[in-house]
Design goal:
Number of domains of chain B: 1
Structural class of chain B: mainly alpha
Distance between the termini of chain B: 44 Å
Distance between the termini of chain C: 32 Å
CATH superfamily of chain B: MetI-like
CATH architecture of the largest domain in chain C: 3-Layer(aba) Sandwich
Shape of chain C: elongated
Strand content of chain B: under 5%
CATH architecture of chain B: Orthogonal Bundle
Strand order of the largest sheet of chain C: 6-7-8-3-9-10
CATH topology of the largest domain in chain C: Rossmann fold
Number of domains of chain C: 3
Radius of gyration of chain C: 25 Å
Largest sheet of chain B: 2 strands, antiparallel
Radius of gyration of chain B: 26 Å
Chains: A mainly alpha (271), B mainly alpha (305), C alpha+beta (370)
Oligomer: heterotrimer
Largest interface: A-B, 96 and 95 residues
Largest sheet of chain C: 6 strands, mixed
Number of helices of chain C: 8
Order of helices and strands of chain B: HHEEHHHHHHHHHHH
Number of strands of chain B: 2
């Protein structure tokens, strides 16, 4: 509120108190992320407080932990392929949903967003049940198919958001100037909706990369992803190697956050 | 001129610009429908088939060692609905959802209010920080809470170190830990939902109330709170629904001693290999879900007028 | 001799069965090099017509022919037209030069020639120095010129303008009017111009098609549609008008160009002189423009005058609107102000006009006879 108040207010204790409250709540919100940073640099042999000294040994251990490295490889492969697939499926679908009027439009749009409403444990169970007989459990194909359902809504949503703010006259203008449908898409539509496509893509990537439940059900024994490995490790060990790994995962998320915030804004993208 | 319109009615005409643009595209009907097909097929394979197969599975009978007896029976539903143990698990799940929902709304409301009103140039940064944890791994954040709440964790070490307590508090491997973890994990969702729901709330309204002589307290209870109620309700429901279906946090922070529907589904599959039973529990969870969402929609319609 | 560039025959667009057609059996011939304004209120079908000519929309029936070749079903990207949109529709991810070059790229024009023509097009709209700018950095008027350059650089068969001035502020709109018109005349681009603004149409167009309810009510030069409106709608939409009920008493004699002088009875106020197309009889609507009515405080002896009472006076600086009540009928008049006393409501006033300014509408009723 920039306007000068009519009367000079007396000292008001409520304002700083509210500020402190908000600060503490932010601290609470970020506590688990901050704590793994601290622990990952602490030289304590086992998880304990206070930190006894500074060390990088936990980070040094990571490359030798074959479970982590294998998990990382699996997760990266899965996340990259899932991103490519959901972009290929989601962007055209969003285009049709925005640019074409048909009766079932609302229903189809809700359908595309509905996987977010279903508990992932339920989806995961359905997948392991279906994939078992099809010999898709413990395969890349199985995990990837599993992740497509839960990432497609993000791509649809961010792309739709970008499409909604574009001027369809641009496409008409390009066609009049001689461009065929594919050229219009490649040279006009796609560049204009690029922010939504990028945001959807990186969100799909991180959601797939961090996904644990479906991966756990579909591929725990044969092809564990990184989150599954971390889950197992945390259940059984108490050293801080996993903290170092967590820091790396947080940093990857941070990159995604920055990208999404820059191209279209986190709030818009995750609404 | 031949029309099917009743005499005296004004003819319907599309609005000039926008509608014309869309109507333009009708010639490409088939091309646009074709664009939908890959996505629909993708969801069919990765979403519809698994769910449908699971529902069918819930009517089979599970035999020892993971053998599935193909049949059509309600046995799998009768057991959880008659066994007091499963009633307790369902009730615990429900209770956890309510507790987490209420606490999460309480801690998120001030932040959301702050963000909605803030005119600071750092507002978008602070907003981004509040939402960003959404895109970090749930496993990592749960692990962070294990470090904070564990027997040798931050809280217990600090308290014993300060001589406030002698024996460490039990904050993990029980519902307390799970609740604390979930409240934090779902905060970004609650904050987002609230900010979106605060649509009608504006500083001008609060100033107007103030100019009419309302005290700070009155402004809050008579203007701010009622106007933010839709946002609060949405946030509560969202967090409730997310909590009753979440698996990772109850699993890790509960350490096997917290049994909710999600962990039970997992145990039934990996431990006992009773697939039909796990499927039935999932269907029960889904039905619970549907009911809550239906009730919520009724409620919002009432509030919305 | 001028040649027909565009010929539209029985063009019809019906959005859905059961709806009134948005464009109803429309016929129009446009001469090479002409600027034709499609003028009408929103929903009259002018934009739909333009879009069908552009190829953005399929007609339900009828045909469109350009340069003697029928293009009714030619795909939009094969028609070689240029169009300027209301929103300008500049590609936001391209700079000014890239925007203008787009159509040339689609035509696979050699790079060197592209460069030359883009530069020439930008010079033509006086923006040669802004080629490397991003379009969003430009003002509305500049964006508009870029859009015009982009449409003209491909040397389009037809230039289509869809309310291009409606997003500009009033001052700029007048400047752009003159500029568009002069560029159009220099390039001799046959142009269709959609507008709802009568001033724009009168100022810029060689021909105006006044549209209403999917039909062309009148197609003619600006002076024709203003001085000799065919219908009540045209007279009412373009400029201001007093409509009077007149009964033909006698056809006095020819007035040239197929018109006659008439003696008519106006609203039972007596006999007056008027003009109209030859051969009229019976009851007709008669139009007199407000500023062609003469208002005097004393009875001028030289003409037939009607005595009335001033009902309302409104002063807008340059002009003075005076409503004069005669019997049950109110006449709106418009005068230029001069120093001195303003007439006051309640004063007696005499109304007169020259017979040439009282025009009998040839078509009775709201629309053309069908």
């Amino acid at each position: 509120m920039n306007e000068a108040p009519l009367f000079k207010p007396r000292f008001n204790a409520a304002k700083p108190a509210f500020g402190i409250l908000v600060f503490l709540l932010y601290l609470f919100l970020l506590a688990p992320l901050l704590i793994v940073f601290v622990v990952s640099f602490a030289s304590n042999q086992y998880l304990s407080f206070p930190p006894e000294g500074f060390t990088l040994k936990w980070y040094g251990m990571l490359p030798q932990e074959s479970t982590f490295m294998n998990g990382m490889r699996v997760s990266l492969i899965v996340a990259v392929i899932v991103t490519v697939i959901v972009l290929a499926l989601g962007v055209p679908a969003a285009l049709a949903l925005d640019r074409y009027e048909f009766k079932a439009k609302g229903a189809v749009q809700s359908f595309f967003l509905s996987p977010l409403l279903i508990p992932s444990i339920v989806l995961a169970l359905g997948m392991v049940l279906l994939f078992g007989p099809l010999r898709l459990t413990n395969t890349y194909a199985g995990i990837i198919i599993g992740h497509v359902a839960i990432t497609i809504p993000f791509v649809i949503r961010t792309t739709l958001m970008s499409l909604a703010t574009t001027d369809t006259s641009c496409e008409a203008a390009a066609r009049i100037l001689g461009a065929d449908s594919w050229t219009v898409f490649r040279r006009v539509t796609l560049p204009i909706i690029q922010p939504g496509v990028i945001a959807g893509g990186v969100i799909a990537f991180i959601v797939s990369f961090d996904e644990a439940v479906i991966s756990l059900f579909v591929a725990e024994s044969g092809l564990p992803t990184l989150p599954v490995q971390v889950l197992r490790y945390v259940e059984n060990s108490a050293d801080a190697a996993v903290a170092a790994l967590s820091v790396i995962l947080i940093l990857i998320s941070l990159v995604v956050v920055v990208v999404v915030e820059r191209v279209m804004g986190l709030r818009k993208a995750l609404r | 001129m031949t029309t099917l319109q009743a005499p005296g009615q004004t003819p319907l005409r599309p609005a000039e610009a926008g509608e014309l643009e869309k109507a333009t595209e009708k010639r490409n009907r088939r091309a646009y429908l074709a664009l939908l097909i890959p996505g629909l097929l993708g969801l069919l394979v990765s979403f519809v088939f698994p769910l449908a197969y699971m529902v069918r599975m819930s009517f089979n009978r599970g035999a020892p060692d993971g053998v599935i007896e193909e049949t059509f029976t309600f046995d799998t539903y009768i057991q959880p609905l008659t066994d007091p143990y499963y009633w307790k698990v369902t009730l615990d799940t429900f209770q956890m959802g309510v507790t987490v929902g209420v606490l999460c709304v309480l801690v998120s409301y001030p932040v959301a209010l702050f963000l909605a009103r803030s005119q600071s140039k750092y507002r978008s940064l602070l907003l981004a920080i509040a939402i960003a944890p959404l895109l970090t791994s749930a496993v990592v954040r749960t692990y962070g809470w294990m470090v904070i709440l564990g027997t040798n964790g931050l809280v217990n070490s600090s308290l014993t170190g300060l001589g406030i307590i002698d024996t460490p508090l039990k904050l993990t491997n029980n519902m307390t830990g799970v609740t604390i973890g979930l409240v934090e994990i779902f905060m970004p969702y609650a904050i987002l939902a609230m900010i979106s729901g605060f649509g009608r709330l504006s500083p001008q309204l609060e100033e107007a109330a103030g100019s009419l002589g309302a005290s700070k307290f009155n402004v809050f209870t008579r203007v701010t709170l009622p106007l933010s109620l839709p946002g609060i309700l949405t946030a509560f429901l969202l967090v409730f629904v997310l909590s009753i279906s979440t698996f990772i946090t109850p699993r890790l922070l509960g350490g096997g001693s917290v049994q909710v529907l999600a962990t039970e589904i997992y145990d039934q599959t990996t431990g006992l290999l009773n697939w039909p039973f796990a499927a039935a529990l999932s269907v029960i969870l889904l039905v619970l879900f549907g009911l809550i969402i239906a009730v919520y929609q009724r409620l919002t319609r009432k509030i919305g007028g | 001799m001028s040649q027909t560039k565009l010929s539209i025959v029985d063009l019809t667009k019906r959005y859905a069965a059961g709806l009134e057609p948005a464009v109803d059996r429309l016929n129009m011939q446009v001469e090479e090099g002409h600027l034709v304004a499609l003028l009408g209120p929103s929903g009259c079908g002018k934009t739909t017509t333009l879009r069908m000519v552009a190829g953005l929309m399929d007609p339900t029936a009828g045909s469109i022919t350009v340069d003697g070749k029928e293009i009714t079903h030619t795909p939009v990207n094969k028609r070689g037209m240029g169009m300027v949109f209301q929103s300008y529709a500049l590609f936001p991810h391209m700079n000014v030069e890239q925007n203008v070059a787009f159509g040339l790229q689609m035509r696979q024009t050699p790079k060197a020639e592209q460069k030359k023509r883009v530069a020439a097009a930008l010079d033509m709209v006086q923006l040669g120095h802004l080629g490397k700018r991003q379009t969003r950095e430009l003002s509305g008027g500049q964006q508009q010129r870029i859009a015009l350059a982009r449409a003209l650089v491909v040397e389009p068969t037809l230039l289509l303008l869809d309310e291009p001035l409606s997003n500009l502020d009033a001052k700029l709109r007048e400047t752009m009017r003159t500029e568009i018109r002069s560029i159009q005349q220099r390039t001799r681009a046959t142009t269709l111009f959609v507008t709802h603004d009568q001033d724009e149409a009168l100022d810029m167009a060689d021909r105006i098609a006044v549209m209403n309810g999917g039909l062309i009510e009148q197609f003619g030069s600006p002076t024709e549609v203003y001085e000799r409106p065919r219908t009540h709608f045209v007279a009412n939409f373009i400029g201001q008008a007093n409509f009077l009920q007149a009964t033909v008493v006698s056809e006095v004699g020819p007035a040239g160009a197929g018109e006659s002088h008439y003696k008519v009875d106006i609203e039972g106020l007596g006999g007056f002189g008027a003009v109209g197309s030859a051969g009229l009889s019976g009851s007709h609507e008669l139009v007199i423009r407000p500023h062609r009515l003469k208002v005097t405080v004393a009875n001028a002896a030289d003409r037939d005058a009607i005595k009335g009472t001033i009902e309302r006076v409104s002063y807008t600086g340059d002009a003075l609107s005076v409503a004069v009540k005669v019997g049950g009928k109110t006449f709106n008049t418009q005068l230029l102000t001069s120093s001195g006393d303003l007439p006051r409501p309640g004063d007696t006033a005499y109304l007169s006009w020259s017979p040439e300014d009282a025009y009998i509408l040839p078509v009775n009723g709201k629309g053309p006879a069908s």
